[in-house]
Amino acid sequence: ESTLGAAAQQTGRYFGTAIAAQKLGDSQYTTIANREFDMVTAENEMKIDATEPNRGQFNFTNGDRVYNWAVQNGKRVRGHTLAWHNQQPGWMQQLSGGSLRQAMIDHINGVMNHYKGKIYAWDVVNEAYADGNSGGRRDSNLQRTGNDWIEVAFRTARAADPAAKLCYNDYNIDNWNWAKTQGVYNMVRDFKSRGVPIDCVGLQSHFNSQSPYNSNYRTTIQSFAALGVDVQITELDIQGGSATTYANVVNDCLAVPRCTGITVWGVRDSDSWLGANTVPLLFDSNGNKKAAYTSVLNAL
Ligand code: XIL
């Protein structure tokens, strides 16, 4: 196959990218993105601050730009993200307790209702586990509403759009030996055993020297899948852009039937949230295919 999306489709998978609404006028960007990818995640436009800038007043202008570009070009969309400690609007940052809990529920309902039946999978909860060795929850205003906030978010989401797959998404849960990975694993196992609705786990997979790719990545993917959830690689970037590491990531996903797709977090190096100089993506800042691109295409 000659594109990432078509190559991924050969095994029933997808290959996606993050899309930024403000770049949709850049024809080099849209040409590459349209040609290569068959799944789209809005890089920022469906986050809480973007979609509910004032409590109860929803704004889908930029989210819809990304959504419409994707669907008009035959691509599916992952929704990102409904409940998160970051990129909360100011009004939400100031809430706590029961009013924050209700605001979270109202936000999930408002956004999922707008996109009802249109989203392949939602990152319902993002980055709720703590870094370091505790294996426990991250302290946040949402966590302080009560430990059950994650399952409340998932139950609310299932009722709001039964057609969407519901994912838990996080970073540094790719290394099987890390406490954070085990914390999330135990939560998913608990949710499955108690019937809390969860369909997928997103491994963000931002690899760098502090949190490098580890050869136990395949074990992590297999272990989550064995709990009865799909696994998706949701925000892949590799600082330095190692072609070998990119191939390893693809091979690990392809080794697990329930690893259903891979999304890279941007198109060209110049589009990366990490800065162009970290060269973490598959196309260089001039839009040329890199060695990592060829490596991924050959592995798919
Ligand atoms: C990043 C975006 O790429 C940036 O444009 C924005 O300034 C900050 O957020 N984990 C996530 C993503 O779940 O939403 C983040 O995206 C990267 C880390």
UniProtKB/TrEMBL annotation:
<keyword id="KW-0378">Hydrolase</keyword>
<keyword id="KW-0119">Carbohydrate metabolism</keyword>
<keyword id="KW-0858">Xylan degradation</keyword>
<feature type="domain" description="GH10">
    <location>
        <begin position="1"/>
        <end position="299"/>
    </location>
</feature>
<keyword id="KW-0624">Polysaccharide degradation</keyword>
<feature type="active site" description="Nucleophile">
    <location>
        <position position="235"/>
    </location>
</feature>
<dbReference type="GO" id="GO:0045493">
    <property type="term" value="P:xylan catabolic process"/>
</dbReference>
<keyword id="KW-0732">Signal</keyword>
<comment type="similarity">
    <text>Belongs to the glycosyl hydrolase 10 (cellulase F) family.</text>
</comment>
<protein>
    <recommendedName>
        <fullName>Beta-xylanase</fullName>
        <ecNumber>3.2.1.8</ecNumber>
    </recommendedName>
</protein>
<dbReference type="GO" id="GO:0031176">
    <property type="term" value="F:endo-1,4-beta-xylanase activity"/>
</dbReference>
<keyword id="KW-0326">Glycosidase</keyword>
